[in-house]
């Protein structure tokens, strides 16, 4: 098992075992979502110490991007998905799939959503809700703002 350096700090249930020349999937959970609620959380207000992750001019309206931010509790890099809704609004999400913890990215067969290549889940960028695949829960949201020339993401510090 691999510990995910992410505010949710979930343990990924997938592990591969190499047997001779054949790779076998040893354990991949029971196929159920860990977050069965597919209603997007309210957009968090930017609070605490923000991190500039991208220039606003690098993310045109209606485009998506994947960037790295620092987990304030551990200092580890975590993946953040961005969606530029309009000139003033950028939405930010965790890139951890709500199905089994794989990384969600912006390279999608449909070209307009977020996609988890591990098991084929799709998430809509305007709310992070799961739209296809085995994931049944919306992506975790982060506070985000355009501040001057930068897109700034606010990663919450998990309560101990």
Outline the structure in words.
- Mean pLDDT is 80; it is low at 1-35.
- The chain starts with a strand and ends in a 6-residue tail after the last strand.
- The strands form four sheets. Strands 5-14-13-8-7-6 form a six-stranded antiparallel sheet, with no helix packed on it. A four-stranded antiparallel sheet has the order 9-10-11-12, with no helix packed on it. The chain has a two-stranded antiparallel ribbon with strand order 1-2.
- It has strands at 2-3, 11-12, 14-19, 22-28, 51-55, 64-70, 77-84, 90-94, 104-105, 114-116, 121-123, 130-132, 141-147, 150-154.
- It is mostly beta strands and 160 residues long.
- It has no helices and 14 strands.
Question: What is the structure about, briefly put?
Answer:
This protein is mainly beta. The protein contains no helices and 14 strands.
Spatial strand order of the main sheet: 5-14-13-8-7-6
**What fraction strand?**
35-45%
H/E series: EEEEEEEEEEEEEE
Globally, the shape reads globular
How is the main sheet built?
6 strands, antiparallel
Radius of gyration, rounded? 16 Å
Low-confidence stretches: 1-35
Number of helices: 0
Pairing-aware structural class of the strands and helices? mainly beta
> Termini, distance in Å?
22 Å
Number of β-strand runs = 14
Helix content: under 10%
In round numbers, the mean pLDDT is: 80
């Amino acid at each position: 098992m691999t510990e995910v350096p992410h505010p949710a700090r979930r343990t990924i249930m997938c592990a591969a075992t190499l047997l001779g020349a054949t790779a076998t999937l040893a354990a991949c959970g029971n196929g159920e979502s860990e977050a069965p609620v597919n209603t997007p959380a309210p957009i968090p207000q930017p609070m605490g110490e923000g991190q500039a992750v991208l220039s606003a001019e690098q993310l045109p309206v209606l485009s998506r991007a994947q960037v790295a931010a620092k987990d304030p509790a551990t200092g580890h890099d975590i993946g953040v998905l961005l969606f530029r809704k309009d000139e003033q609004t950028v939405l930010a999400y965790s890139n951890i799939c709500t199905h089994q913890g794989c990384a969600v990215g912006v390279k999608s067969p449909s070209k307009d959503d977020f996609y988890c290549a591990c098991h084929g889940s799709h998430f809509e960028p305007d709310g992070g809700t799961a739209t296809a695949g085995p994931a049944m829960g919306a992506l975790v949201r982060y506070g985000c703002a355009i501040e001057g020339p930068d897109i700034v993401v606010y990663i919450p510090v998990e309560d101990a």
